[in-house]
Structure to design on (295 residues):
């Protein structure tokens, strides 16, 4: 795979990321941050630093049709200039990614700027043009459809949550493309079997209405100029599996509805190894996170 393609992949990491990797590392840091900022605005975005500890699936000409994963979910006492999340990014790279990038993001987030609190929330994001004129967070615009009777909606508080000195709490997130309609369905469960929350209609998208070409999974954090980088995951480095956040039972869904565990060949991206880390994938599981602090 070319350096340029890898850089482009990072750019989408979030749909919503930054790119300019030095050309490799600079490029990587510059585009996915800009894109991410467009989707998840924060105070003083021009002075915001973005951090990732994620795994990206390899190229697959046949595409991906969903993912299921169990994610430890945590909470942190953050200020308005900080954000900490565990998420899944589903994208289609076909066409001009600057103008036609199709992406879905789902996960948990602590985001005081958005929610006016330091609680942990379920969140969703979508776009079909790299946030040039379409897409939004949660239910801010017409898009994601919540099914009647769902016990949770995008933006709702997740409870209970894990703590380093408390029992781990795990959410199961499944996003899968329905073969007949092409809609992308979100399933969610906490410490149990996931149930339907709602769906992203196929009509929202161009390329994603057919398939995804890459899926990324892991942690994201951000901080503005006058704040330090916040904790990611549990706040412990991946090298301490007894305390670090884990994402496990990661299964990729294929066109024929088969599910296979994510492979060890997924690429790892950590933007600041002094603050955060991600372990290699083994048996469809990895650990990630870190304490944050000053870079």
């Amino acid at each position: 795979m070319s350096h340029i393609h890898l850089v482009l992949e990072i750019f989408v990491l979030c749909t919503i990321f930054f790119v300019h990797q030095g050309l490799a590392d600079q490029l990587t840091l510059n585009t996915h941050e800009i894109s991410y900022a467009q989707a998840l605005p924060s105070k003083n975005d021009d002075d915001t630093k973005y951090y990732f500890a994620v795994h990206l699936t390899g190229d697959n000409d046949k595409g991906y049709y969903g993912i299921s994963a169990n994610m430890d979910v945590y909470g942190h006492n953050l200020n308005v200039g900080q954000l900490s999340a565990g998420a899944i990014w589903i994208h289609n790279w076909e066409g001009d990614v600057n103008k036609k990038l199709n992406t879905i993001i789902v996960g948990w987030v602590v985001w005081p700027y958005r929610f006016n609190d330091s609680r942990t929330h379920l969140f969703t994001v979508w776009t079909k043009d790299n946030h040039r004129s379409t897409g939004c967070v949660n239910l801010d615009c017409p898009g994601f459809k919540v099914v009647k009777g769902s016990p949770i909606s995008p933006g709702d508080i997740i409870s209970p949550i894990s703590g380093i000195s408390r029992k781990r709490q795990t959410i199961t997130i499944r996003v899968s493309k329905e073969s007949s309609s092409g809609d992308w369905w979100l399933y969610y469960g906490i410490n149990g079997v996931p149930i339907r929350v709602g769906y992203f209609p196929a009509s929202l998208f161009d390329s994603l209405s057919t398939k995804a070409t890459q899926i990324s999974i892991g942690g994201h954090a951000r901080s503005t100029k006058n704040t330090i980088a916040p904790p990611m995951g549990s706040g412990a480095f991946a090298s301490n599996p007894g305390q670090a956040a884990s994402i496990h039972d990661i299964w990729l869904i294929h066109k024929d509805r088969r599910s296979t565990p994510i492979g060890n060949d997924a690429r790892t991206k950590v933007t600041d190894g002094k603050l955060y880390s991600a372990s290699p994938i083994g048996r469809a599981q990895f650990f990630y996170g870190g304490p944050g602090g000053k870079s």
